[in-house]
UniProtKB/TrEMBL annotation:
Pfam families linked: GED (PF02212)
Top-level taxon of origin: Eukaryota
Domain (GED): residue spans on this chain: 48-139
Residues spanning the signal sequence: none
Gene designation per UniProt: MX1
Protein's UniProt name: MX dynamin like GTPase 1
Segments forming a coiled coil: none
One example GO MF annotation: GTPase activity
Species per Swiss-Prot/TrEMBL record: Sus scrofa
InterPro entries given in the database record: GED (IPR003130), GED_dom (IPR020850)
Length: 150
């Protein structure tokens, strides 16, 4: 997996703004406490303070991004594993097709019944044509009499 976590600029700016606002509030609280405690404030390099602000904002956003991606990552690996197992099983079925050929064969009684029903349908169609011939068909229907399958 990637070792870089990408974040949209607007999202990062918002997180950085929140960190800076929180730091300003802490600074105000620290100054009010220092007034009562009379202890000098530790001076630090402003660039280090800004680096820490960026680091805190980045850490917060990385935590959010990774926590939202964990379910997607789990789903991806489950689907990939299932797909590999399915592919392996299908290939095994194809290799052992002689063992499973009996599943595709039609039962003999089903085959006999299908043949019987086809013959019956043909007899009924002939009987229908004969019955129409006795009644006298209209001139437009002589070419193709309707069948029972229509």
């Amino acid at each position: 997996m990637e070792q870089i976590v990408y974040c949209q600029d607007q999202v990062y700016r918002g997180a950085l703004q929140k960190v800076r606002e929180k730091e300003v509030e802490e600074e105000k609280n620290r100054k009010s406490n220092q007034y009562f405690l009379s202890s000098p404030a530790p001076s630090s390099d402003p660039s280090i303070a800004e680096i820490f602000q960026h680091l805190i904002a980045y850490h917060q956003e990385v935590g959010k991004r990774i926590s939202s991606h964990i379910p997607l990552i789990i789903q991806f690996f489950i689907l990939r594993t299932f797909g590999q197992q399915l592919q392996k099983s299908m290939l095994q079925l194809l290799q052992n097709k002689d063992q499973y050929d009996w599943l595709l064969r039609e039962r003999s009684d089903t085959s006999d019944k299908r043949k019987f029903l086809k013959e019956r349908l043909m007899r009924l169609n002939r009987a229908l044509r004969a019955a129409r011939g006795l009644q006298g068909t209209s001139p437009g229907n002589e070419d193709q009499p309707p069948s029972l399958t229509d």
